[in-house]
Amino acid sequence: MSLEKLSELVEAGEAEETKMLTEQLLRDGTDPLEMIETLTKTMAHVGELFARLDIFLPEIMLSGEALTEAVNVLAPYLEASGGREIKGKVILGVVKGDLHEIGKNIVKLILETNGFIVKDLGYNVDSLDFVKEAEAMGADFIASSSLMTTTMPRQLEIIEILKSKGIRDKYKVVIGGAPTSQLWADKIGADLFCYDAKSAPELFTAILADN
User: Fold this and answer.
1) Residue range(s) defining the domain that contains residue 128
2) Non-local CB neighbours of 81 within 8 Å, separated by 6+ positions
3) Are residues 23 and 41 in the same domain?
4) Does 64 share its domain with 152?
5) CATH number for the domain including 9?
6) E strand intervals along 25-134
7) Closest Cα to residue 176, out of 194, 158, 197, 203?
8) Cβ burial, residue 25 (10 Å; 0-12/13-18/19+)
9) Is residue 57's pLDDT more than 60?
10) Pick from 81, 110, 132: which residue ends a domain?
11) pLDDT classification of 110: cutoffs 50, 70, 90
12) Same domain, 146 and 103
């Protein structure tokens, strides 16, 4: 059994087999950090296949479930070794009035495999809850997704709440979702527009490095 096989199982969306192989590789002495690196590359590849329409939502979600199984097995080993660099803390959710969370789930998985701690608030999240959870977590990022033009103003609302509380500068506010754009991010004063899931870790890391 090998890291190549692990990659194949995740890409194929074989969750139970992925979990079993991850456990076996750990027993055989495989470095957990090497496994995370393999999983990260695998999900980046899956993301590229999805972007090219070579695979569709059901396939990428199955890969995500398989990835979650592997990450759940690896997490205690990574934390125990102190080998997993924490790049940043993220509050993530879909804004109030919007129930579409598949893209958000993919972003969460990819961020987590790249060293970010993510608290997922789910969907239909009140704007004030984003702020409250960020304060409780000591987050670096508040990231919200909107998949409908009618819910996009909720992203502005998050920024307005931060301003009203005098804590706007404490957080990097990230927006994403199909109808959103760099133009919208600039208009509402967001720090970052995340245009696709696979680019999220690089974009999040770069904006932290700039400060």
Assistant:
1) 88-209
2) 32, 33
3) yes
4) no
5) 1.10.1240.10
6) 88-94, 116-120
7) 194
8) buried
9) yes
10) 81
11) confident
12) yes
175: enclosing H helix or E strand: strand 172-176
Distance CA 170, CA 166 (A): 9
Q: Is residue 12 domain-shared with residue 109, that is, in the same domain?
A: no
203 φ, ψ (degrees, to nearest 5): -65, -45
* Structure-token pair, residue 31: 């470095």
Q: What pLDDT score does 65 carry?
A: 86
Q: What is the mean pLDDT of residues 106-127?
A: 87
Q: CA-to-CA distance for 64 and 176, rounded, in angstroms?
A: 19
Number of domains in the chain: 2
Buried-state track 93-111, b at ≥16 Cβ within 10 A, e below 16: bbbbebeebbbbbbbbbbb
Domain identity same for 141 and 118: yes
Please say whether the beta carbons of 10 and 66 come within 8 A: yes
Residues contacting 204, CB < 8 A, separation 6+: 87, 88, 90, 111, 116, 141, 172, 174, 192, 194
101 and 161 housed in the same domain: yes
Are both 109 and 38 inside the same structural domain? no
Confidence at residue 86, expressed as pLDDT on a 0 to 100 scale: 81
The residues that bridge with 117 in the sheet, in sequence order, are: 89
